[in-house]
Design goal:
The protein is an alpha+beta fold. 18% of the residues lie in helices and 22% in strands. Strand 3 and strand 4 form a beta hairpin.
Amino acid sequence: MRMARSHPIAPPGGITLISRIVLYDKIGPGEHPCHWCNTPVRWIVGGGPATPGSLLADHLDHDRANDAADNLVPSCNRCNAHRTKRGGRAPLRDDELTMIWSGVRTRAVERVCESCGGSFLTIPAQVKKGRGRFCSQSCARHAPRKPRQPRYLG
């Protein structure tokens, strides 16, 4: 943090994160797309993660001490929070297969539809639950049903 009272994104107290100042100087004022999901975000003076639509400075290398301009990208709160290491979950890597699931950038796995044979993406949690077998509801409806295993009550 540093005092920057005369900077356009500095709150009335004048203290703001260096990463925000560097990113603002790099991309300028106005609305920008989130680097990860393309959600429009904008500079909000004094706005933090709790402010909807607030632009956050995201560090590509996950190192908050590295405030180099080429290491900073605009991010929405959801993507920024999901990329940080919280709850023991490893951060998403830039070369990792991902998708947007419920508005959040999430790890993905590629599957082959059991009905049409086409490939599609789903999240690992769906595969663990025994779901994620079909690329669409239409394919799921037209797929042959698997025979049920008989239950023995004995």
